[in-house]
Amino acid sequence: MPRLLFNLIAFEVGWLACVLGGSLIGILSAGMIIAVHLAWLARPGEWRWLAGFVALGLIVDGGLALAGGFTFAPPLEGPLPLPLWLWTLWPLFATLLHHSLAWLWRYPALATLAGAVGGPLSYFGGSQLAGIDLAFWLLPTQAVIWALLCLGLSLRLGDRPHPVDRDVAG
């Protein structure tokens, strides 16, 4: 199986495991996917991106949870403002940055649009599958957050060669 296809399928499997399986299954699945990613696909230093997205996820989704953007059933127990499975989706997304989504960063307008649409759709789909109620303002807020995030990624990563380019050239 080509590496880019594996990368995309692994993310989707991890996303579903987190959303449908909850924290224990989600963390175990995501942990295995991330470990395989780091061993087989990762570029040197890519672990820093994954770690950065762990922090970013806690800040963004944690802040939105504290602001009342999510209503979890049953209510959360513990010190974190969001379930671990939701937080785990952030480093899973980061596994796509230099691989399956690398082509997207070359096109800032398209990356911004993809973030504005894809981010909220992921949250909406996940909320429907996991039984989470979203505040009326959350999806528009997510659209802005993910549009800006993807624009930033495009500006930072857009000039790097796509993995397919490297495979064809060498």
Outline the structure in words:
This is DUF2878 domain-containing protein. Keywords: Membrane, Transmembrane, Transmembrane helix. It holds the Pfam family DUF2878. By secondary structure, this protein is mainly alpha-helical. Helix 1 (3-40) packs across helix 3 and helix 1 packs across helix 4 (108-130). The protein contains six helices and two strands, in the order ααβααβαα. The protein has one domain (3-169). Strands 1-2 form a two-stranded antiparallel sheet. The two termini are 18 Å apart. The longest helix is centred in the N-terminal third of the chain and has 38 residues, at 3-40.
Average predicted confidence as pLDDT: 92
- Rg, please? 16 Å
Number of helices: 6
Largest sheet geometry: 2 strands, antiparallel
Number of strands: 2
Distance, first to last CA: 18 Å
Transmembrane segments: 13-42, 49-72, 84-105, 110-130, 136-157
Keywords: Membrane, Transmembrane, Transmembrane helix
InterPro entries: DUF2878 (IPR021306)
Protein name: DUF2878 domain-containing protein
Would you kindly provide a brief summary of this structure?
It holds the Pfam family DUF2878. The chain has helices at about 5-40, 45-65, 85-95, 110-130, 140-155, 165-170, and strands spanning about 70, 135.
